Amino acid sequence: MLVDNITLTVRAGRGGNGAATLKPFKGGPDGGRGGNGGNIYAVGTSNVNDLRQFRYQKKIVADNGGNGARQNMFGRKAPDVTILLPLGTRITNVATGDAREVFDTEPFLLAQGGIGGRGNAAFKSPTNQTPRTAEQGKPGEEKELLLELRLIAEAGLVGLPNAGKSSLLTVLTNATPTIGNYPFTTLEPTIGMLEKHAIADIPGLIQGASQGKGLGIDFLRHIEKTKILIHCVDVTAADPMGAYDTIRAEFGAFDPLLLDKPEYIVLTKIDLTDAATIQNVSKLFKNKHVLTCSIYNEKSINSLKKKLVTLLS
Predict the structure, then answer these.
(1) How do beta strands 155-158 and 40-45 pair?
(2) Is the Cβ–Cβ distance between 214 and 184 less than 8 Å?
């Protein structure tokens, strides 16, 4: 199951407490400082595809710093925690709305650990030779973060329900989406790899999806993340052009920028009709890049694979 958004709480470690100790015989202060709490960092990686690692781990907590000790000994600094995120993840601070996106592999700070408290040795002065108080460690930062995967695939397969997207993804890649002859078989995006290129089967859209109908806006949101669109149109449909226009209208209503994405039309299920029908339907899409295929025709699938690899490369 693709997990592409999650709410995560991160809590950095608390600083250790300073020590309030006195030397055994002379009586002077010798309490050391507490160690700093652990920081929490994030780093982008291409080795993680989604956010499923946080599905059952909704809270990341770093250790607290060690307390100071006598003989001016500092407490242990707590180790930092680093979480791995897929490249293209957007991180939003729920409280402030501040957001950033992960597009490189440089670690960056999510939550700052608390500073350790000063021991009583730090408070010795000419007027107070034997201070008996020390500072408590400062709490670490705690934040609620919304993680959203913004780039899940290079190409997205789009189209009305039952346009053949899931079946096509199965033969193009190593993905195994649920396939059935009824609307909304696919309830979430499925990603497969065509050579080194990630292709996503975007669940079926219907008229009114931009207003939340059917499976709605969540699926339109996935389309924003892809580089190119592979628009699947059932060549046997009663109104192939109408099916195409329905999806394009929802794109425009949701975000007009989707209409500017590079798009290639794939006429599916060509094994269910004749050559004349295929040619007539192809002519409907004037000035469009039109490809044809059948999952039962190995030659057409191999041709489509080569074309997609060329486009994505």
Answers:
(1) unpaired
(2) yes
- Tell me if 224 sits within 8 A of 259, measured CB to CB: no
Report yes or no: 235 and 281 within 8 Å, Cβ to Cβ.
yes
Contact 230, 198 (CB under 8 A): no
Angle at 230 between CA 224 and CA 244, to 5 degrees: 90
Per-residue pLDDT tens listing for the chain (313 residues): 567 789 999 999 999 999 999 998 878 999 999 999 999 999 988 677 778 899 899 999 999 999 999 999 999 999 999 999 987 788 999 999 999 988 677 899 999 999 999 999 999 999 999 999 999 999 999 999 999 876 567 888 888 888 888 889 889 886 655 444 444 444 456 777 788 787 887 765 544 444 444 444 455 666 777 889 999 999 999 999 999 998 898 888 888 888 999 999 999 999 999 999 999 999 999 889 999 999 999 999 999 999 999 988 8
The SS3 call for residue 99 is strand
Residue 198 parent element (H or E): strand 197-201
Query: Is the separation of the CB atoms in 154 and 227 below 8 Å?
Result: yes
Phi then psi for residue 154, to 5 deg, are -75, -35
Which DSSP symbol is given to 29? B
For 257, phi then psi, to 5°, come to: -65, -25
3-state secondary structure of 256: helix
Spatial CA neighbour of 266 closest among 134, 144, 171, 146: 171
Beta pairing, strands 155-158 & 228-234: parallel
89-93 and 142-149 beta bridge pairing: antiparallel
Using CA atoms, how far residue 309 sits from 26, 44, 51, 186, in Å, is: 79, 25, 26, 24
Domains of the chain by range and CATH?
Answer: 1-150 (2.70.210.12), 155-312 (3.40.50.300)
Q: Cα-flanking dihedrals φ and ψ of residue 249, to 5°?
A: -65, -40
